[in-house]
Specification:
- Helix 1 runs antiparallel to helix 2 and helix 1 runs antiparallel to helix 4.
- This protein folds into two domains: about 120 residues, no CATH class; about 90 residues, Sandwich (Immunoglobulin-like), CATH 2.60.40.420.
- The longest helix is centred in the first third of the chain and has 30 residues.
- A four-stranded mixed beta sheet has the order 2-1-4-6, with no helix packed on it. The protein has a four-stranded mixed beta sheet with strand order 3-8-7-5.
- About 45% of the residues lie in helices and about 20% in strands.
- By secondary structure, the chain is of the alpha/beta class.
Length: about 220
């Protein structure tokens, strides 16, 4: 997105104003959809588990929201002409530069946020061969997604990369704390049965998206 916005700014410098308008308008509008579908739900899930070392998250959210609102205002004012004359931008160049600057700041804060929440990668810390009772957690899947073990087995989930958790579909059998790269969670399965689970950040109960199942024999 940052590359697209910079390319759009270059088009304006080259006098390709119509293409510039389409590029910037599509990027800003598309990002509004991503914010609504992905970012806001993720932020709502994150907020109860916030800590002092993750203060960058609300700062990123504020900067990104301001950049998006300003970008939409510029698009509506300059490209669509829906606003009454008194509310329209008079100096487009100044406002567009301000919006682009805010986008780049939000992009940098987003990279910082990702690094803070995901904690890098723990690939080097993983054993060369995973045992039958070990599940690797990655962006955005459990490997293996289906595991069959005898009763009495302790299953271990190891977070290789990303910010995840593990919780049973029924909401009571087991639930981990939030894990980042290198984090682990263990649960002993004593009763035979089928135990479905998911990551609340990237999946949901019922086997949707980031989800898995442990079959206990």
């Amino acid at each position: 997105m940052a590359a697209g916005l910079l390319a759009g700014a270059l088009l304006a410098r080259l006098g390709r104003f119509r293409v510039h308008g389409w590029v910037q308008g599509l990027i800003v509008s598309g990002n509004a959809v991503v914010i609504g579908i992905v970012m806001i739900p993720s932020f709502v899930r994150y907020f109860p588990s916030r800590t002092a070392d993750t203060r960058v998250v609300p700062v990123h959210a504020a900067a990104g929201s301001l950049a998006e609102l300003l970008g939409l205002y510029v698009v509506v004012s300059a490209g669509l002409g829906w606003l009454p004359e008194r509310f329209r931008i008079k100096n487009y160049k100044r406002w567009m530069r301000l919006a682009l600057g805010l986008w780049l700041v939000a992009f940098g804060l987003g990279a910082w946020t990702y690094r803070t929440l995901n904690g890098g990668s723990a690939a080097a810390a993983l054993p060369a061969a995973a045992s039958a009772a070990r599940i690797v957690v990655r962006n955005f899947a459990f490997d293996p997604a289906e595991l069959s073990v005898p009763a009495g087995t302790e299953v271990e989930w190891i977070d290789e990369t990303g910010r995840h958790d593990v919780q049973a579909d029924d909401g009571t059998s087991f639930k981990s704390d939030v894990m980042t790269a290198g984090g682990t969670f263990k649960h002993r399965f004593d009763r035979p049965g089928v135990y479905r689970y998911f990551c609340e950040f990237h999946g949901s109960a019922g086997g949707h998206d980031m989800a898995g199942v442990v079959t206990v024999r």
